[in-house]
Request: fold
Amino acid sequence: GDSVTQMEGPVTLSEEAFLTINCTYTATGYPSLFWYVQYPGEGLQLLLKATKADDKGSNKGFEATYRKETTSFHLEKGSVQVSDSAVYFCALSDLGNTPLVFGKGTRLSVIA
Amino acid sequence: GAGVSQSPSNKVTEKGKDVELRCDPISGHTALYWYRQSLGQGLEFLIYFQGNSAPDKSGLPSDRFSAERTGGSVSTLTIQRTQQEDSAVYLCASSLGRAGNNEQFFGPGTRLTVL
Reply:
């Protein structure tokens, strides 16, 4: 079945550091790819998405590019802030509106 | 507009009791999903409703779990004879249910603790 693998956390960075959270996937079809974020005490929010190969999703300074050849969707940000501290989930949806398949999440802590 | 709402926000119950968790999706969203978030298991899909179609129950972990969606809107997830391993945060999400637009909007969750 479909699956998502993302790097284990926790990740601790200093403010203004560069962030990469790796995500790879396996899917039988041509999935849409997502990054969701869960801030402390809050619900899951969509951070960005990409629906086809070479698409780049971006939001709040975060970016991820849909790489079909490497089945990857790595999350990057050039300069993290303390307010970016959260748990980040990579996810895919294989066909239309099928349920999301999530990675296990990566906890990011940014220290001033 | 209003987002997805869930109630209760917290539920503590004793082993063996039944519990009902409620989800109010975003108005006009035809697709509704239940997920479970627990330590060590991450986020797991439980059940999916799309319009008037039969629900996809493939993620339900046992026959103690069931869900219904009345009138294509509000959904109730029922767990019978709760066990300690059922302790988790239960998340509901909804989407427009249109091909090519599969962004899911999540509610705040219900934290279930089974003693």
